[in-house]
Amino acid sequence: MLDGKTFTITLTEKGKEEGDPDTLIFKDATFDSTACHEYGFLANPYMAKEKDGGVKFMSICKSKKSGTNVWKGPVSGDEIKGTPVWNNGEKN
After folding, report:
1. Closest CA to 33 of 88, 91, 83
2. End-to-end CA distance of the chain
3. Which residues span the domain enclosing 52?
4. What CA–CA distance (Å, rounded) separates 32 from 76?
5. Does any domain span residue 31?
6. What is the pLDDT of residues 60-81, one digit of tens each?
7. If exposure means fewest CB atoms within 10 Å of the residue's CB, which of 1, 18, 20, 36 is most exposed?
8. Is residue 66, in this structure, part of any structural domain at all?
9. Is residue 46 domain-resident?
10. What is the structure's pLDDT at 6?
11. Is the dihedral of CA 31, 33, 39, 40 positive or negative?
């Protein structure tokens, strides 16, 4: 459903205005965040379904050295919104 789409975004931490550039790539039934490569995250499968005239997606990305990222959000045309939640495995 989203294969072949690429989005250039700015990845920001909650509560901050400045962020880092990122490219989100949907290809061959996988989702990839290029900014997360340095943390050991590579392309992982994604799920998508049509909803409210657009598409909602989710991908659970795992890294041996950096835990888990869960990405989800809506895509409408050439616009993507979403939230990655990073659980780096550390206990508070």
Report:
1. 83
2. 38
3. 6-87
4. 18
5. yes
6. 999 998 999 999 999 999 999 9
7. 18
8. yes
9. yes
10. 97
11. positive
DSSP state letters, 23-70: EEEEETTEEEEGGGGGGT---EEEEEEEETTEEEEEEEEEETTTEEEE
Question: Residue 1: inside a domain, yes or no?
Answer: no
pLDDT at 89: 62
Instruction: Produce one character per residue of 53-86: b if its CB has 16 or more CB atoms within 10 Å, e if not.
Output: eebbbebebebeebbebebeeebeeeebebebeb
Higher-pLDDT residue of 88, 59 = 59
Classify residue 32 as exposed, middle or buried by CB count within 10 Å of its CB (0-12, 13-18, 19+): buried
The answer to whether the CB of 46 falls within 8 A of the CB of 58 is yes
Cα(25)–Cα(3) distance, rounded to whole angstroms?
8
Query: Distances in Å between the alpha carbon of 63 and those of 19, 20, 78, 81, 85?
Result: 22, 20, 28, 23, 13
Q: Which residue has the higher pLDDT, 52 or 42?
A: 42
